[in-house]
Amino acid sequence: MLENLPSQLEKYLPPPVLALVKIAGREASELGLGLYIIGGVVRDLFLGRANFDFDLVVEGDAIKLAQKMARDSQAKLTVHSRFGTAKINYPGFSLDLATARSETYSKPGALPTVKPGDLKDDLIRRDFSINAMAMRLNPQRFGELIDLYHSKDDLEHRLIRILHPNSFIDDATRILRAIRYEQRLGFTLEAETEKLLRRDVTMLDTISGDRIRHELELILKEDKPELVLWRAGELGVLRQLHPSLKGNGWLSQRFEQARQSYKQTSLPSLYLCLLIHNLTDKENEEFISRLNFPKNSAQAMRHTLQLKAQLHSLANPQLKPSDIYQSLHSYTATAIQANALASESPIASQHLQLYLTKLRYVKTLVSGEDLKKMGIPAGPRIGEILNTLHKARLNGEIKTRKEEEKFAHTWRKAPIPITTRSKIKSQRSK
Ligand code: ATP
Ligand code: MG
Fold first, then answer.
1. Gap from CA of 270 to ligand 1 centroid (Å)
2. pLDDT in tens, the chain (430 residues)
3. Does residue 211's CB lie within 6 angstroms of at least one atom of ligand 1?
4. Structural contact between residues 223 and 180, judged by C-beta atoms closer than 8 angstroms
5. Pairing mode, if any, of strands 134-136 and 34-38?
6. Residue 40 Cα, ligand 2 centroid: separation in angstroms?
7. Which ligand is nearest to the Cα of residue 39, counting in written order?
8. 429 C-alpha vs ligand 1 centroid, how far in Å?
9. Closest CA to 59 of 28, 88, 13
10. 101 CB under 6 A from ligand 1?
C-alpha cells in the first residue's frame, strides 16, 4: 500500500490537473473551507487504476469556492444551488464540487433528504467503505488521508463492505453497485455484507425502473459484464429484476464472442439483447416496462425476439442474397448481431453476418431522379425499377452504373422481370 500519499497524488494526477487541484486547495483555505478529493478517485489511486472522474467535497459552501476558482481562471461554471453543487469546465477537463452533506432516507428506496453536513456525514452516506475515503487538498496537510471506516484495510483485504446494516434497505441500487465493484476489481463481498445483501434483495422492488436501468447500464459498460451478471444470478439479484433472467455460461460465451466481433461502443446494447434472448415475448414486455427502457432499446429487444422466431427460414442454404436482404432489412442491426451470436444454425449465422458486413450497405448507383431524367415518368414504376435494380445488384447480377442504366432503360416500358439470373442474362445478350 502507498505510504507517501502526497507524492503518490503528484505522480498519479496529470500535471495540469495537479496544478488546478493545488490552486483549489489554496483558494479553499483563503475562504476558510476544507477541501477534499473523495470517492472513486481515492480508491483507484490506491489500486493504481486510472480514474479522472473527480469528485471534490467542500466543508462549507462549495458554490462560493467554485465561483472564486472560475473567476480566477475564467473557466465556465455551472451551478446547482438547490444541491449546493457546481461544475467548473476547463478546456478538456472538469471538476465537480459538492457541499459536504448528510443524507437520511424517509423510506426504503426514496430519494434521500439532504442537509449540509461535515466531512464525516459526507463519508457515512456513501455506498461502500472502499468508496468512503477522502484526501485533503488544502495546503496545510495536503494529501492527508481521512479513513474513518477502515477503508484502507478493506482495500488491502479486497473486500466490499457496506457502512451500516440498513444500507441496502435505504438504497437497494447499492445491491447492484456492490456486485459491479466486486467483479470489476476482483474483490469479494465481506461476509456480513453478503448476508445482508441476500436478506435485502427484495428491496430492489422499492427502486424505480429508471434507477435500476441506470445501474444495469453501468454494469453493461464494464469490461466483463458477464461476471457481474453471473454473480447477480447466483445471489438471486437477477431474478428480482425479472424471474426469467439468467446469467449463465451460455451468456458468458456470447459476451466474449461479442467483444471479439463488434466495436466497443455497440457492446452495451448488444449485451442487453443477448441478456433477454431467452425470454418469451411476454416476459420481455414485462422487463421492458419494469425498467422503463426507452424506445430505441425496447425496439432492439423486441426485434431480437421477433428475428429469433423467424430464424429457421434463414437456415436455408439456397437463399439468395436478395432473399436475405428482404428478410432482414427491417430489423435493427443490434437485433441481427445478437441473433448472429446466439443462433444454433451455422448457416443462419452466416447469412446474418453476410447481411451485416455486406448486404446492408448495397445501394443502387442510379437514383429516382436519374430515372426521371431518363424519361421514366414519376410514379410507382420508378420504385419498382429501383427495387429490381437493387435486387439484381445484391445478387451480383449487375455491377456497374452503365449496366443499371441499360436495364432501367429496357424496363422503361416493358414489364419488369422478376430478377433471375436467366432473365438478366438474356437481356444482357441482346
Ligand atoms: P466508478 O465511477 O469508477 O464506478 P465512483 O466511485 O466514481 O466509481 P460514482 O458512481 O461516480 O462512482 O459515484 C461517486 C461516489 O458517490 C462513489 O464513490 C460513492 O462514494 C458515492 N455513491 C454513488 N452512488 C451511491 C449510492 N447509491 N449510495 C451511496 N453512495 C453512492
Ligand atoms: Mg465515478
1. 25
2. 555 677 778 888 888 888 889 999 999 999 999 999 999 999 999 999 988 778 999 999 999 999 999 998 888 999 999 889 999 998 878 889 999 999 999 999 999 999 999 999 999 999 999 999 999 999 999 999 999 999 999 999 999 999 999 999 999 999 999 999 999 999 999 999 999 999 999 999 999 999 999 999 999 999 999 999 999 999 999 999 999 999 989 999 999 999 999 999 999 999 999 999 999 999 999 999 999 999 999 999 999 999 999 999 999 999 999 999 999 999 999 999 999 999 999 999 999 999 999 999 999 999 999 999 988 888 888 999 999 999 999 999 999 999 999 888 887 766 666 544 444 544 444 3
3. no
4. no
5. antiparallel
6. 6
7. 1
8. 71
9. 28
10. no
**Predicted local distance difference test score (pLDDT) of residue 3:** 57
Three-state DSSP class for residue 48: coil
The answer to whether 20 touches 65, Cβ cutoff 8 Å, is: no
Question: For residues 261 and 161, what is the distance between their CA atoms, to the nearest angstrom?
Answer: 36
**Ligand 1 close to Cβ of residue 34 (< 6 A):** no
H or E element in which residue 400 lies: none
Going by CA atoms, what residue is nearest to atom 28 of ligand 1? 127
Q: What type of residue is 383? A: G
pLDDT, tens digit, 9 for 90 and up, residues 399-417: 999 999 988 888 776 666 6
The Cα–Cα gap between 315 and 309 comes to: 12
Would you say the CB of residue 84 lies under 6 angstroms from ligand 1?
no
Grid cell for residue 27: 483558494
Ligand nearest to the CA of 42: 1
Residue nearest (by alpha carbon) to ligand 1 atom 18: 39
Cα(275)–Cα(269) distance, integer angstroms: 10
Q: What is the largest CA-CA distance in the chain?
A: 92
> Given the CA of residue 43, which atom of ligand 1 is nearest to it?
6
Distance CA 251, CA 149 (A): 37
d(CA 286, CA 292) in angstroms, rounded, equals 10
Mean of the per-residue pLDDT values of the chain: 92
Question: Taking the mean position of all CA atoms in its chain, how far away is CA 274?
Answer: 14
- Ligand 1 in reach of 173 Cβ (< 6 A): yes
Residue 16: predicted pLDDT: 84
Strands of the 55-59 sheet, one edge to the other:
76-80, 85-90, 93-99, 55-59, 34-38, 134-136, 145-146
Atom of ligand 1 nearest to the CA of 173: 27
CA of 367 from ligand 1 middle (Å) equals 53
